[in-house]
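user: can you give me the structure for this one chain? tokens are fine.
assistant: on it. calling the predictor now.
[tool input]
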Amino acid sequence: MKCPVFAWLAIITGTMLDASAQERIPVQDARPLLIAAIDAPGGAAHGMLVGEIASAITQRFKSTSPIYIDVTTERRYAQAGCRRLKVRFWQDGVQLPGAPAPRRQTIDFGINYCRDGQPPKSLS
């Protein structure tokens, strides 16, 4: 090797990227990630959409990557197990009709959600 420092950086960076990819939970819909984010000490959960819906979306937009889902806690409500969550779906290499080149497409939304699948009784 010409430069051992760069070799170690490549190994460390590659290992960190692999570890981060392994932390993504494969899910067929976002609900398990919503609950995981509610339960997580840091208030976040990360997944990858799999299954028929993911395949159909990926084929339709001729994408080059999986559909990723990131859920983060924006607010904790007084009611146990209830949170305001930010949900982000994103995918690289999406070819939209009429667009000159593929790009990252992102959809963000917020949801008030409790572990039982219902909205909180109060937003305080």
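assistant: here you go. Helices lie at 4-22, 31-39, 52-60. The CA atoms of residues 36 and 45 lie 6 Å apart.
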